[in-house]
Amino acid sequence: MATDLYDLTVPVFIRGLRNLSAILEKGAAYAEEKGIDPLTLTQARLTQDMAPLAAQVQYASDSAKGAVIRIGGLDPVPMPDTEQSFADLQERIGKTLAFLESVPRDRIDGREDAQVVLRTPRGDFSFTGRSHVLGFSMPNFHFHVTMAYALLRQAGVPLGKLDYLGGL
Amino acid sequence: MATDLYDLTVPVFIRGLRNLSAILEKGAAYAEEKGIDPLTLTQARLTQDMAPLAAQVQYASDSAKGAVIRIGGLDPVPMPDTEQSFADLQERIGKTLAFLESVPRDRIDGREDAQVVLRTPRGDFSFTGRSHVLGFSMPNFHFHVTMAYALLRQAGVPLGKLDYLGGL
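Predict the joint structure of the above. Result:
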C-alpha cells in the first residue's frame, strides 16, 4: 500500500515537465500572437538578480534528472544549458523526458534509505533517498516549474492553475 | 522500505509551512527596516488578476489541511481567510501547524487507494489518496509557497533558495 520511491519521482517529474512544456507552448503562442520577440519572454526575470525563464526550465530539468541519477546511482546525463528559444527549451524538456522514461523502476525502488550525496559549490550535502526526494528534489522541482509559470503569467500569457497542475 | 502516506503529507507540509513562516518573518523585518507599509507587501501581486501574498499563504494553508482532512476523512477545520498583516498570517500558519501536528498517523496511512473527492466550484474531482497527494496537493502546496517567496523576492526582500528549502 505504501508508495514506492520510483512512483514518488519519475512519474511526478514526467507529469510536471509535460505541464511545463504545455505552459511554454502557450508562452510561444502568446509571443507570436502579440508580435513580441519570444526571447524577451525566455529571458524574463522576476527581479534583476533572479534567474530568467530559460534557466528556470534548465533548473527544473536538472532537478528531475539529478534526483533520479543520484538516487539510482546512474551515469550523469550532461545537458550544457545553452537553450535560449522556446524551441530550444522544448528540446531540453524532450531530452529530459526521454531520459526519465528510460530509467528502470528497479534502479529507484528500494533506495529509500540509501545514502545520496548532493555535490554543490557550497559543499556536499548528504541525504537518504527518501529525504532527498521529500525535502529537496520535489519542492525544488515544483519551485522552478512554478517560477516559469509565474514569469509567463506576469508577462501576460493567459495561464491558470490547471495549466500548472495539468488538469484535475 | 516504501514510504507511508503520512510521511508523504504531514511532515512535508509542516516543513513547508515552517519555511514559509521564516520567509514571512524576513518580509516583515524588511518592511520595518525600509519603512515600507507592511500591507503593501502582504497585498503584493505578480500581476493584477493574481492572488496577493496574503491569499497565497491562505491557499498554502488550505492545500495542506485540506489534503489531510480529505485523505483522513477528518472533520473540516474552517479558517475564514481574514488575514491581512504579517502577524495575522503567522497566526494562520500556527493554527495550520497545530492542526497538522494533531493528525494521528493511523488516519492517513493505508489510505493510498481510498477514494478522495475534491469539491470545487467547477464540480467534484475524484482521486485516490496517493494520486491526490502526488498529482494535486503536493504540487499545489509547493506552488503557493513558491508564489509567496516570489512576491517577497520581487519586492526586494533578501531571500535565497535555502529560505524556501529550509536548509539542505
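The longest strand of chain B covers residues 115-120.
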